[in-house]
Specification:
Blueprint (H helix, E strand, L loop, with lengths): L1 H22 L7 E2 L3 E3 L2 E4 L1 E2 L7 E7 L16 E6 L6 E2 L4 H13 L4 H13 L5 E2 L4 E6 L8 E7 L18 H4 L3 E5 L4 H5 L3 H7 L5 H16 L5 E11 L1 H10 L10 E5 L21 H9 L9 H5 L3 H10 L1 H4 L15 H7 L7 E6 L7 H4 L13 H12 L1 H11 L4 H30 L4 E6 L18 H5 L10 H20 L19 E5 L4 E4 L3 H19 L20 H7 L1
Parallel strand pairs: 3-6, 7-8, 10-11, 10-12, 12-13, 13-14, 14-15, 15-16
Antiparallel strand pairs: 1-4, 2-3, 4-5, 5-9, 9-11, 16-17
Helix pairs in contact: 2-3, 15-16, 17-20
């Protein structure tokens, strides 16, 4: 028996060593594709090693940008071929927070101890990716380079709270969507303080400040419209889609008049900025600071109060990142702001009042969105700091946000009626408060405006009896891209669900309707029927999903929008009539022709 145990130990150790070796092997360089000319010059992509019919063009610069300025025209390299087989540098960002998020997933999905150890050691051993302020790159993955008819284009905006992430993440670099007949584009955009910091000196210099990451996304979409035909894509059929901050970005694009005409359809996975009340200069809410106020405090240790824009732009980038790591309490403000130019009004108001383009929409969220956030926040709502203490203390804090009667109803609906059940119910409520209410809000208003809309809830969970995070935030992404981790074996049910989701997503990109051959019928969403698709296996339709809970949360959201819009901030409106540098006035161009 002892000898058998020794043999098993060494067999396991050998297996772990082999797995570690395989995971850490560098990828072989891709075989070069034929040279391709685009507007900027000649590029040479790679032949995907998993599917020789697919070509990959990575690290394509779609714009240039000096720090804290609007993106400018893309660089030219003329006849000198550009090797497009490697990804471009990621945008500068703090790294600690994203690593903690990934580790929480590894801990929570219920992996066996040896797989958990292998995953954690692998993640910890990975070198930091190349990063730079020169980071406005995108990646194109296409299977339509043989001169066939143009195919739909799907442009992915990554998540990461507007603070972290990149378009080159392995989660998004898979062939599943492309093999179903689309061209896939993934993009970088400036993040955190380098993407969204506002400051009076910057506003004085350029007429606005703080929405740089959002303007980057617009520049990427303009690049797609101008160049994607060279990769076999249809510039007149562009679906922009994203998850978390990426989905929030889609709503920010919808609310900006500068993005009109840059996309035709939208897919939103767990994100809408309908709650964002940040204004550039004057905050309409006492509980929300202005973007310039936060920017001044953030830079107060890095530059004198009277610093000019040029002085601020000369601060060492490493000092800005270190400051962001030290002042995480401020980074939540590095989001798009209402400036009267890039964003004329609060995004939630624009959605509610119909001041956004009405386009075909597919939107939804995951069943257990709060599971990765509650331990950090200790509150059932993002509109309040930690709710701790006695049950009376927590009830009073909840009532401060929602009002006495709605708070009591929420306590009952989420089962937060004792200290023993509070955390479980508050976790569920937090997911609906952060994501669910906003997804239904935008879907409902889009449908009420007469646009075809489909709503989903992703509820597939890792089958381990030890998993603790359910259908967690971002859990749907491997199913959308068919990018499942080798450490998490895919069951037959997972394969079926992955195939169905990719079919729904690409059908929608192709025609504006997810339905088609081989997948169950997904009914249109309307306020009256309130039908959602439950994305699990088997697929099923759910009616009035969490309706009473979301109704109360939506009432509070509407109250927030009303409170913001009842106060006029005249300095945030029409700061300058001149267009921003690098931003094309499409209407003016059209009128001049």
């Amino acid at each position: 028996m002892k000898r058998l145990s020794i043999v098993l130990f060494f067999a396991l150790a050998g297996g772990l060593a082999w797995g570690w070796f395989k995971l850490n092997q560098p990828a072989e360089p891709m075989e070069m594709a034929e040279p391709l000319r685009i507007e900027q010059g000649v590029v040479i992509g790679g032949i995907d090693p998993d599917n020789p019919d697919i070509q990959v063009f990575n690290g394509l610069p779609y714009a240039t940008a000096r720090r804290w300025t609007a993106p400018d025209t893309a660089p030219q390299w003329g006849a000198i071929p550009r090797d497009a087989r490697k990804y471009g540098a990621e945008c500068l960002q703090p790294r600690a927070g994203l690593g903690g998020f990934v580790n929480d997933i590894v801990e929570g999905v219920g992996l066996p101890w040896w797989k958990r150890m292998l995953a954690q050691n692998y993640i910890a051993s990975q070198p930091s990716p190349p990063e730079s302020e020169t980071c406005l790159f995108l990646n194109v993955r296409t299977g339509n380079m043989d001169g066939g008819a143009p195919v739909p284009v799907m442009v992915w905006i990554h998540g990461g709270s507007h603070q972290a992430g990149s378009g080159s993440s392995s989660l998004y670099q898979s062939n599943g969507l492309v093999e179903k007949g689309v061209v896939l584009v993934t993009i970088n955009y400036r993040l955190g303080p380098l993407g969204y910091l506002a400051h009076p000196a910057l506003t004085e210099a350029d007429g606005t400040s703080g929405n740089y990451g959002l303007m980057d996304q617009m520049a990427a979409l303009r690049w797609v419209r101008s160049n994607i035909a060279s990769f076999g894509g249809d510039p007149q059929n562009v679906t922009v889609f994203g998850e978390s901050a990426g989905a929030q970005s889609v709503t920010e694009l919808m609310a900006s008049p500068l993005a009109v005409g840059l996309f035709d359809k939208v897919i939103l996975e767990s994100g809408s900025s309908s709650y964002n009340a940040i204004h550039l200069r004057k905050s309409p809410l006492s509980t929300v600071r202005s973007a310039e106020d936060v920017g001044m405090e953030f830079l107060s240790t890095l530059a004198p109060p009277a610093a000019t824009a040029d002085t601020l732009r000369a601060i060492p980038a490493a000092a800005i990142i270190s400051r962001a790591e030290a002042r995480s309490d401020l980074t939540g403000y590095f989001l798009p702001n209402v400036d009267g130019k890039v964003l004329p009004q609060m995004i939630g108001k624009a959605i509610r009042d119909g001041d956004v383009p009405r386009v075909p929409m597919l939107a939804g969220y995951n069943a257990d969105e709060g599971s990765l956030f509650y331990e950090r926040m200790n509150s059932p709502t993002v509109l309040s700091k930690q709710m701790t203490g006695t049950l009376d203390d927590r009830e009073a804090a909840l009532a401060d946000v929602f009002g006495t009667n709605p708070a009591k109803a929420l306590q009952s609906l989420y089962g937060m009626e004792s200290l023993e059940t509070w955390d479980s119910g508050a976790t569920d409520m937090l997911g609906d408060d952060m994501f669910g209410v906003h997804m239904r809000f935008i879907g409902k208003h889009n449908a009420d405006a007469g646009q075809p809309t489909w709503m989903y809830m992703f509820s597939r969970t890792w089958p381990s009896k030890h998993q603790t995070i359910g259908a967690y935030h971002a859990a749907e992404i491997p199913f959308v891209f068919d990018s499942h981790s080798p450490l998490m074996p895919v069951s037959h049910a997972d394969e079926k669900l992955t195939g169905a989701m990719m079919t729904y997503w690409t059908n929608f990109a192709r025609t504006g309707d997810p339905n088609g051959e081989g997948v169950p019928e997904w009914p249109l969403y309307t306020s009256e029927t309130d039908k959602w698709m439950a994305l699990d296996y088997p697929l099923e339709i759910v009616r009035e999903l969490r309706a009473r809970k979301l109704d109360i949360l939506e009432e509070n959201l509407n109250n927030r929008i009303d409170a913001v819009t009842q106060i006029v901030a005249p300095r945030d409106v029409a700061l300058q009539d001149e267009p921003l540098p690098g931003v094309v006035d499409e209407e003016a161009v059209a009128n001049s022709n």
